[in-house]
Batch of 2 targets.
Target 1
Amino acid sequence: TEDLKRERQLAEDLLHQMLPKSVAKQLRKSQKVEAENYDQVTIFFSDIVGFTSIAASCTPLQVVEMLNNLYVCFDSRIESYDVYKVETIGDAYMVVSGLPERNGTKHADEIAKMSLDLVAAVRQVVIPHMPTGRLQLRAGIHTGPCVAGVVGYKMPRYCLFGDTVNTASHTESTSLPQKIHISSATYDALLTDDAYEIELRGEIEVKGKGKMKTYWLLGNKNYSVQN
């Protein structure tokens, strides 16, 4: 009985690494997981600058080892914040705050603190086959409504949908090395407690939305994450 309990706990822990607890609970009861609408969440995307050329100069095993080092570092850091890691796709890392558990107006603040932490942390990630090299992160953040739900029944995935996801992805792709690019919606959400150093970037062209005013998130006035 003890062995069975232990095995069951291991299986549950593994499931909770892949799906939110509330979603896993519904799936275990063989319930259909209903898609849910969220009025306000904040979404973070990042990727590695020059990843294609770095990968081209490595063996497949070295690429996996490098990404594993990076994501183990990131995964351990984000546990300090009220965020949910949605997925990694190659060198892209996607995190959200405000779902599946709603956290009022805290989501932008949580993602902002986390992103400053990750941009500082990436400098400390050691790449075994590039001892003198350092990875650089490009990050983007956007705040807005979205829908979340489970897609598929083989390897079910908890996915986010909506224009907010696309815009967050676009802020990331138009960002610069070691910079955190935020939308005006995230800027407005962060203004409430005046805790951040933010600089106007200007206007960027967003596909299907026209010109959008964006900003650089430079730091937090109350604490430093450089260590």
Target 2
Amino acid sequence: DNSSEFITKYRICRRQVRECSGEADHHEGMSSDDELTPTEMTEFQKSKDNVLEDSRKIFEDVHADFCDIRKILLKFQEWKEKFPDSYCDAYISFCLPKLLNPLIRVQLINWNPLEQNFAALEEMPWFRAIEEFSDTKKVSEPK
């Protein structure tokens, strides 16, 4: 949150400088982050590192069975197999996205699709776990 606030303030400042200097050829949204000074880049990186460090601590006190998507989905799969009526009555397919959302968001904090070193969504463990769960749902449902 601090890094986005910093960047927003910096962009406002640059816009004011452009307006005062009469720079007319600027197109909004076309500026690059290369305009950041080394000090500002260092501050941004420090803020980013702090956010990543804090994100690692989010599920620190949570039992492993409740912060691992694969294990959570396995519990729901067992429920579906043992008590299909109850599973169906609970509308689990509507609940799962809300349940898994915080877990997925934490894993995506550092994900940037514009950088080459980052994996595609389809290669991430949480995506594969959901995909496997969806496939087993299709296989076990009567036609």
